[in-house]
């Protein structure tokens, strides 16, 4: 799979839907909708690093949003909501990046 393609089944080349891909983690697997092959993430270390970084950045944006909202506008709730919105956007774009650059492999049972 080239770096500009979306996540595909390593067995048949069928497209893995974004929703199904986002639900994958280092301890789960999914089935291909075309050939029913069992698929898991092969670059688990990179997946763990991406998850850790996105968690830290998201938490920081919520805290900084709450602080900025309270300090500048006197509204803690407005700052929390704006920080949460920014965190959701950050998580979405990190998931989309992982979807476009992830490596999947087929699980073989003997």
Descriptive notes:
The chain has 110 residues and is mainly alpha-helical. 55% of the residues lie in helices and 8% in strands. The protein has helices at 18-22, 44-73, 76-101; strands at residues 30-31, 38-41, 104-106. Strands 1-2-3 form a three-stranded antiparallel sheet, with no helix packed on it. The mean pLDDT is 80. The protein has one domain (18-106). The protein is built from three helices and three strands; from the N terminus they run H-E-E-H-H-E. It starts with 17 loop residues before the first helix and ends with a strand.
Keywords:
mainly alpha; 3-stranded antiparallel β-sheet; 3 helices; 55% helix; 110 residues
Broad shape:
elongated
Pattern of helices and strands: HEEHHE
Q: Could you say how many structural domains there are in total?
A: 1
| Strand segment tally | 3
Give the strand order, joined by hyphens, for the main sheet.
Answer: 1-2-3
Instruction: Specify the helix fraction band.
Output: 55-70%
Which structural class should the secondary elements be placed in?
A: mainly alpha
* Uncertain residue segments: none
The average pLDDT score comes to 80
């Amino acid at each position: 799979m080239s770096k500009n393609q979306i996540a595909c089944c390593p067995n048949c080349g069928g497209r893995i839907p974004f929703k199904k891909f986002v639900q994958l983690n280092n301890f789960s697997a999914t089935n291909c909708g075309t050939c029913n092959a069992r698929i898991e993430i092969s670059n688990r270390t990179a997946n763990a690093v991406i998850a850790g970084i996105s968690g830290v950045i998201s938490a920081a944006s919520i805290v900084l949003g709450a602080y900025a909202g309270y300090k500048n506008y006197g509204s803690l709730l407005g700052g929390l909501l704006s920080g949460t919105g920014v965190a959701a956007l950050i998580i979405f774009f990190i998931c989309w990046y992982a979807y476009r650059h992830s490596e999947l492999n087929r699980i073989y049972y003997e």
